[in-house]
Design brief:
With 554 residues, the protein is α/β, with parallel strands linked by helices. 62% of the residues lie in helices and 10% in strands.
């Protein structure tokens, strides 16, 4: 198991991302400090004005006091707006950067590391977890700096009257802004991480329930799914209540601390006045200044609850960014043009468990269709994925055009191959856009030609919008057979030297299967085609046919 990152480690990693926007962050901190000092000066100026009105030495004139109050109030508004504008600009800019890095990480980890992962949990991480980081960038980094700088200024201001009173203020700031948040975070940390993880799991369960709603209705299973959803939601609510309870205790401790330190400041001030160390103005101004300057450190105390969720979300996002792929893409390898594919004595097992392929050897050349049959789980599909280097073989070698595929630039390897898998992934776009996934620069005529080869053109033309017809989310508006033929159209459009077909006709009727097989024979000239199927009838067009049993080619 990976060791959990500490809160400071997570914050350090997240803060490093701010470096490109450090100028905006410095401006936000400056505006924040200036804004809080203006807010504090409103109360301090008010107290000094009252002193003057009462005839106590050390005050300022009533007219002057009123002018100061008006100026500081207006400045406070403008400065606060500027601070928030800078913070949110930084936050949204960084969220875009983080999303880009996460999507790049997911691409790097796919498919090996993402197979078996809860897709709903990934969606939750990409959306809500990254959104939560907005709290950190907009309401955490600069408030911490603002609290420290503002407190230092106020310590100097109060220290002008008395060093003892300045020390009391320091203890108050540390208690409210450091001790209380740290204690609260200690109690919150594990609960917050559990909450974020369970929230992601719930998202996955809801997504799965939505996709499988028709099956649940068919087998009258909706009530059971709903009960489980409610049970998981109740558990999340329980965790949230615990977090809110800790947050309430933290808020109460903060309020009590402010009252206690304010009373201590007042009592000590009176004692110092009686000793002649400071005057009445010193007692009143010091007490008022400290009471009004708790705003920045109270903001830190309030962060403890939100920071729990934020750090938990940050840890989940960083774990994806830190995840190492099973197979690292070769970005500097050799560029090749397909001439042949060879597998020699290949052994492979998933994560070192039960072997899937043993001593697997095969070669594929242009103008040749190779059929591979075998029972489900025999390793047929795995062999194709190894050829595309989705995984690396445990032993043996796989080469293309005489070069080991590990030494070939990954993009070059994939450009020479087209894979049609058992399940075709469609996007919520038009049919033409879905076919163009194979070649974004293809013309409409090329798309139509590819669709004809895949025996789906006639069906498309029966639709009201033809190739502009939207397929719906996950292609729900199309049948499995229609999805599969769009997958085949992509392979024809890509026009790679090698076509890998994994059960390409499993969802087709015999008539359409026959059409597809004829197209493969007719349009596969000059190409190397490996056709995997558990049905021997599908591989009847093959020039050579092999059977895989127990991971071994026969």
């Amino acid at each position: 198991m990976k060791r959990k990152k500490s809160g400071f480690q997570i914050m350090k990693r997240l803060i490093v991302l701010v470096k490109p926007l450090s100028g905006f962050m410095a401006l936000a901190i400056f505006l924040g400090v200036a804004g809080f000092l203006c807010a504090i000066q409103i109360t301090v100026s008010g107290s000094l004005t009252l002193l003057s009105a009462a005839g106590i030495p050390g005050g300022i004139g009533v007219k002057g006091g009123c002018v100061f109050l008006a100026v500081f109030a207006v400045l406070r508004g403008f400065l606060h707006y500027g601070e928030q504008a800078c913070n949110h600009y930084i936050a949204f800019k960084l969220l875009a950067i983080i999303r880009d890095r996460v999507f790049k990480a997911l691409r790097r980890l796919s498919p090996a590391k993402l197979e078996g992962k809860d897709k709903g949990d990934l969606v939750s991480m990409i959306t809500s977890d990254i959104e939560l980081l907005e709290v950190f960038y907009a309401h955490t980094i600069s408030p911490i700096c603002i609290a420290v700088l503002t407190s230092l200024v106020m310590l100097v201001f109060i220290g002008r009257y008395s060093t003892v009173l300045s020390l009391v203020a320091l203890l108050g700031y540390v208690t409210v802004g450091v001790i209380i948040p740290l204690v609260s975070s200690k109690f919150n940390r594990n609960i917050g991480m559990t909450y974020r993880t369970d929230a992601g799991t719930l998202s996955g369960f809801v997504l799965e329930s939505m996709r499988g709603l028709l099956e649940s209705i068919r087998y009258t299973n909706t009530e059971k799914r709903l009960e489980e959803m409610e049970d998981r939601t109740d558990k999340l609510n329980t965790l949230q209540m615990k977090l809110k309870k800790i947050e309430g205790h933290s808020s109460a401790a903060t309020d009590i601390s402010i009252i206690v330190f304010s009373l201590v400041m007042l009592v000590l001030g009176i004692a110092l006045k009686n000793k002649g160390v400071i005057g009445t103005d010193g007692v009143i101004v010091s007490t008022v200044a400290m009471m009004s300057s708790f705003g920045p450190v109270v903001a830190l105390s309030s962060l403890a609850g939100n920071l729990t969720f934020t750090l938990a979300a940050g840890e989940r996002v960083l774990s994806i960014l830190d995840e190492e792929p099973v197979v690292k893409e070769n970005e500097t390898g050799k560029e090749v043009i397909f001439s042949e594919m060879e597998c020699r004595n290949v052994d492979f097992s998933y994560n070192g468990h039960t072997p899937v392929l043993k001593n697997f050897s095969i070669d594929a050349k242009p103008d040749e269709i190779i059929g591979i049959t075998g029972e489900s789980g025999s390793g047929k599909s795995t062999a194709l994925k190894l050829m595309m280097r989705f995984w690396d073989a445990d032993s043996g070698s796989i080469s293309m055009s005489g070069e080991n595929i590990k030494a070939i630039k990954t993009s070059s390897l994939r450009n020479n191959q087209s894979l049609v898998s058992q399940e075709t992934q469609l996007f919520n776009e038009s049919i033409e856009a879905n076919i163009k996934i194979a070649d974004f620069g293809a013309t409409h005529e090329q798309v139509v030609e590819a669709a004809k080869k895949a025996s789906i053109h006639d069906f498309i033309m029966t639709l009201p919008k033809g190739y502009d017809t939207n397929v719906g989310e996950l292609g729900d508006l199309l049948s499995d057979g229609e999805k599969q033929r769009i997958g085949l159209a992509r392979a024809f459009l890509k026009n790679s030297g090698m076509i890998l077909l994994d059960e390409p006709t499993s969802n087709l009727d015999s008539l359409n299967e026959g059409r597809i097989l004829r197209s493969l024979r007719e349009f596969g000239k000059g190409k190397s085609i490996i056709l995997v199927s558990h049905r021997k009838s599908t591989t009847r067009i093959a020039d050579r046919t092999y059977s895989v049993k127990g991971g071994t080619l026969r």
